[in-house]
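Hey forum,

I'm writing up a methods section and want to include a predicted complex as supplementary material. The small molecule is zinc ion. I've pasted the protein sequence and the SMILES. Can someone with a working setup run it? I'll credit the forum in the acknowledgements.
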Amino acid sequence: MTVGLLSFASVPIVSPFVLNLSFDASAQAAPQSFRDTCNAAAAALMAVITDPITMNIIVGYNETPDGLGGSVATNLGAGARSSDLGETTGGINQTSYTTIRAALSAKASRSANSTSLLNSLPNTSSLNGSSNFYLPRGLGKALGLIAANDPALDGSSGIGSSVPAANLLGVCIHEFTHAMGREHGSAPFDFCRFLSPPPGARNFGAGSTSPAQYFSVDGGATSLVSLATSSDPGDFAATNGDIFQALYAPGVTQNPLSAVDLKVLDAIGFTVLGVV
Ligand SMILES: [Zn+2]
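Reply by user p_vandermeer:
Happy to help. Structure tokens for the complex are below, copy them as they are.
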């Protein structure tokens, strides 16, 4: 029986979530270690996300690939997302609040975190006055609103050559999650961005600056982390070295996804292992 158990344990675990990276000419010309680290970042995300979808992201080295054609969002302030270290754009559709909420509702039982978020979203035709939101393609797939294996590009990421080797894995995870849909500016992440406690307002602002704000999945009552007020207000404030903070800190920023990182990915619609 022991042999059987050992045999079972040696079977490779294949993630139902596939993060399919392609490298443009600049990335193909980069050091092999760059592509290796990009693939390690993709593997780290495939290890924790279990949605049965395939997401397609093109990666550039010292530039952001222009592979998304007319679907590149301008309304989300596409462009620099993490100082000059990397930037991400994603193909985005405008979708009704009702549609997005229904899709989140269908998946809400996956964690207490996502259930709390759903309970904070009124079953109405608008949220804080907005009836339509920008839905990144990656979230569209996670929420079942875009075909799971649609072959079109879902996003692009550009990673700078100046990123120290010790920080590169974290920067890649940071930028890839933007390409997957961790974006702000009338997007689903804004369901969780708050300016003040209840009955305070959510923050739907786009752009690169913001008033003080925080991430909450219970309608603003509890802050799980402070969010950035400059650079990328869809990121965390630069306080603790988390890889989702707006600016990484050489020698400080940690590579692993933290518990609150996983809560963010869960809240915007992914099924994530280890989220409570
Ligand atoms: Zn960022």
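Some notes you might quote in the supplement: Residues 109 and 115 are 6 Å apart (CA to CA). The radius of gyration is 18 Å.
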